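Database export, one record per block. Field names are fixed; values are copied verbatim from the stored entry.
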Amino acid sequence: MMRWLRNVTVAWVGLGLLAIAAARGAEPAVKVEKEKVKVEYKYFDPRHLPDPPPPISNGEAAVTVYSLGIETYVRYGYREPARQSGPVKIDFSISQVTVTLKCTVTEWLPEDPSAALRAHEEGHRAIVERFYDNAEKSARALAQKEAGKTLTGRGEDAESAGKAVIEKVTERVNGGYTKAIVEPCKKAQEKFDTLTAHGTNGKDAKQAVGEAVKG
């Protein structure tokens, strides 16, 4: 008898690094670097769990852990303000937004898993990769909205004012990516488990993947 399965979602976003530089006309305003999906299979003996143990709860037979990551880097230009005492207010021109996308999937399976169990966890992996296929298009659109803008930053000095601007840009890009890719993927994973009763009702996993992704 197959045990209940669980899918764990791990999503993270990175803040942009501070880059104070003049705009370089020869470089594109938006760059998207999409890394290949990294898939790892880990096997364990349910009777003798390794240390540290796999991230499964009591009664679970297997688990798929995934990460949809985004790192946003911002380059801007500005005119050095006149020396003054106290906080500064500076207009920054966003000359370049670079986005790096990453995706990792780890399937934790018992030794010699059944075909149904393996198919179910592969279904979770397939859903992640479906959404990651569209990640570059979404990230590029979000970055294009920010590149070329002029934003006002305030702070104790130019560096802190620039950091405030970068935080605004990265929050919008990373937040938009979460709404466009990460959250829909999580919902699809949950629907997949509902459709398959966590892999226990005999429903074809590939068919369930297609239904879950459609929403």
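Remark 1: Strands lie at 4-14, 30-34, 38-44, 60-77, 88-110, 150-155.
Remark 2: Confidence is low (pLDDT under 50) at residues 1-25.
End of record.
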